[in-house]
Design brief:
The protein has 682 residues and is mostly beta strands. The protein contains five helices and 50 strands. 4% of the residues lie in helices and 37% in strands. It is globular, with a radius of gyration of 27 Å.
Length: 682
Amino acid sequence: METTIIDKNNESNLFSAAQRRRNFVGRFGPGICGLSLLLHAPAVRAVDVLTHMNDNNRSGANTSETLLTPANVNQSSFGKLWSYSVNGATYAQPLYVSGVSIGGGTHNVIYLVTMEDEVYAFDADSNTQYWHVNLNSGSFVPVPIADITGSSSLNIVGDVGVESTPYIDKSGGTMYLLSRSKNTSNTTYHQYLHAMDITSGAEKFGGPVEITASGFNPEIQNQRMGLAKAGNNIIITWTSHEDMHAYHGWIMAYNAGTLAQAAVYNDTPGGSLGGIWQQGRAPAVDASGNIYVITGNGTWDGSQNFGESFLKLNSSLSLLDWFTPDNYNSLNASDEDLGSGGAMLVPGTSLVIGGGKQATLFVLNTGNLGHEQSGNGQIVQHISGFASGEIHGGTVYWNSAANGQLIYNCGNGDHVKSFKFNGSTFGTSPFQTSSASSGGEPGGFLSVSANGNANGIVWAAMGTSDSDHGTVPGIVRAYNADNIGGTELWDSNQNSSRDNVGTFAKDSNPTIANGKVYVGSYSGKVTAYGLLNGGGNLVITNGTFKLINHNSALSAEVFNHATTNNSPVEQWAYSAGNNQKWIVTGVGGGQYKIMGVESGLALQVTGGGTGNGTFISIGTYTGASNQLWAPTATSGGNYRLTPGNATGSGLDVQHSSTANGALLEIWTYNGGNSQQWSFQAP
């Protein structure tokens, strides 16, 4: 396998690949230089998004985001990195798990589910797919929405498969989700709880198990809210489609280890309706495992029927407490569901808040929700006109160093608004209001990223027009969380040819983790946004990878399986050899050591050289700067790899060759494809 290579330094001699390797050590000599100046990047903390809206409070906040700041989220430095291709619409929020043992290494993984009953595991730092499972086979298909509503252009367009956000138990390596299907051979309808291994997609615990209960109709009951875990039970709720047919608000609990049904609760057993939907927001769960949900239009008697109410239940679904506003009858008469917006537990307090279509925010004490009384004076607070349109997506929370505790909301056709919280009550008028508004129903779906109580950003996914029925284009907006009334930081339509998000996905909040923002759509894709070329260092999870050159699509490998110091590194077609696998480990300051699996030696700039054309080799790791590499995102899941001893350079392929056997070197960074590398599962 001899390949002729022309030296980038325009040397007159032409050498075969074998000759170049033989001359390698003699040309540069052995040795490793001392420490040089390290590149500095923000400290990175592992982040997981395992449940809808980040945590059991449903705060919607990731407060460990060290890479994205109001200073670097702008049109020039932030935008689309890639899109994950999926089959079907994504109503569920993407879930993110760091440090998964998958694909022969340790990687960050994004889990996606679609209305076509399909489940995907993708690398969170590239568009590599690890596994994909179709939950149907044979005569089973996702439920056509027209079977239920008689139309394909109402609240749901197309099929109904996995609609709600799953729940992931990271310690057990299990993802719980609910699917819906139609058996076309006998026209029957089914709903199933799945427990899937996050490393392979395989079913666990004898699953899936079919959802059944006396009076439960799997065809018409709509499972919209995200799944939750309370105690050792997986909690699932149901509502209706378009208020059609004879439905109830159901909650069921299934044992997380066996998938055995543990409890069933019907909120209108002596009446009807009372759907539990919260625009997709999962039940809030407190530290004792108690569950908080808000119900919609339905029968109410304060005894066994609890339409238009806040409910508190334990993990075995015994009703512990409740609150019903005194105008529940008029809410029912006007189709003003109290439970359209969802419950949020205010972090660090004993308060639960929520509101619905009447746009009133209710603030309750979890120790005494208050039941029903004329005037609603028994509760902590209620704010009429909290939003200028119906509340659907619900509130998110952040504690700002500059402005104190804040909640954010974006109602139907409303602007993003912040409200101050003094530890006991909320301000009754907005603290700040954004200039742009949502296109209509159902308003904006919000998330917050921040580094503790600094560098807060509010992310809003919304439609460009009313999307109650049918589909509309979507837009993602970013605001400085301390100044949402100021200039918008970025939105996906500023450079729509690059950043377009596709069709708006209702119920799906943006997921922010480790410098990236993941947003679903109904367009068969989930888009990953992040810092663009030169925008800053991105996180590479510690793990084992193959290093693929963007120009040649060949893999970095140690020549001839060598295991001695100063052996050269070349590129070659990937064959899964251990000389083509690299263990990547962060050492701080945004830098990494890259160790050969077979040799146990470090990828290094030979002899500590800093000049163009200095070859790359392996050597005993000492922590010297020529053995440290800083990855910086470019585009399409690729990275520039900057050596610590030559910070103006990048890891390159000699003469930008696409041939097997071309040696690796450093060269002044120019953004060429031969200087772009992707970290892929080996």
